Amino acid sequence: MKKMKMRRLAALLLLSVIMLAACGCTGGSGKAGGSGKKTIRVGYDQENKVLFEDLIPKFEKKYPDIKIEPVEFSSANLVGITTELTSLAAAGKLPDVMIGNDNFAYIVQQGWAYPLDNLLEADADKNDVLNMGLDQYTYNGHLYALPWRMQFDAVVVNFDLINELNMDEPEYDWTISTFVDMAKKATTTKYSGINYIYNANQPTWGFDNKLMGAMYPDGYQQYGYGFDTHSVDLTVNNAWVDTVKIIREFQGVPGLISDDLKDYSLRNEGKADDYDKKFGRNSDAFVSGKVLFGNHSTWEISFINTLEYKWDFYPIPTKDGLEQRIHTHVDYAYMSSALTEDTYEDAYKFLKFLTYDKDGCQVQMDYSINKSTDTSTGFKLYIPATENADIVTAFDNLKQVPDGIKYMYKTVVEDSTKAIISDCDKVVPDFWLNVTTFRDEADKQVEKGADPASLVNDLQTKINSAMNASWSFFSKTVDNNLEEFYKTHPWEKK
Known about the structure:
Distance between the termini: 44 Å
CATH class of the largest domain: Alpha Beta
Largest sheet: 10 strands, mixed
Oligomer: single chain
Shape: globular
Number of strands: 14
């Protein structure tokens, strides 16, 4: 009788395993091969494929009991990977650890990310995590991702042109008034002050948004957003109004913005426009050194390295009277909520190695300098998102990194309040949808002659009303996800 009961029990267990495998409900991997190693699946995009091919063997050397199984997303970059993640989640095949630089709020809303609070708190090296990166990945009191790497919004300064025009070189902690004055002085029949204000392909990345961030003191982020209030404040330091006025001032100086001289209707007819007349037919004024300031960011360093004049990256200038803050972009890494009790700690080891572990950061720095390639190149710059003292020193000693980037990195690491998070669209639900819907309407009114001061309060009210609705729905969804998470992950304490 006992034997029969045991056989029935074994059969039921076998059937359960088969059914779980068939529906893909088993979640995280953790399968042990013939070697007895735990397997952790790591997801990354094609852009970072070669980096991870270099990184993974070094992790496995440090942790010989863990085997990494690569999961390569088919997308060329991280934008648009959401569709792939949806399919993987539906099949119960989410990678155990993933990187990202796009809409993380959506990932959390779907319940795909593992709360990291307990794992980070238990780690003796937790103080090495880049502090400024934590608020933006915290929802309803729980941390869901870690900062992986950084980049900065910046201004490329043409030192050859400064010397030719007998100007003084600005300090890194320069002000908006200095920036505006220099741009005006550089604007002649031969030169321009800046290459562009608006980015036609990415309108939310325009210089007006960068400049507006420089109007705010500590506690405010991109477009005056506050992580504590879940709202924007456009009136602090007259931020929005002053930004609009400066942009209008630039536009009122003929030729100050080089790209504004382009007339595509004339070009389509094969005729020369004002840009061609000033800089030459088929020319690039910025590349040829005829523009004082370039509206660019540090991830464009491979392109900037091709310039044949002396240059450096500078922080976005700060409003007079305010302490300088650095416009910072952060890519992130996170763990899957499908992880099991026997795999989540090993998955965290890889997450740590990727983000703030000293050895892992050094591997990525070495790769960035010595092995990475890009068109025309230099290298794809890796700026570590860690406060580990050895890594901070090592980065500062890299000869390939411009002094201006080192300055921005050290400023952020030494004081996290000096960072302006420029990734609100990644971590705040519907951020740019709510902002641009009403901002674009206000911009059109300003173009027709309206005083921006008469528009700002109404603009702020409309944006925050929309944001409040988005946050309300998002927060309820996250709370529901958490309830289910703790039911299925009893080893994790709330």
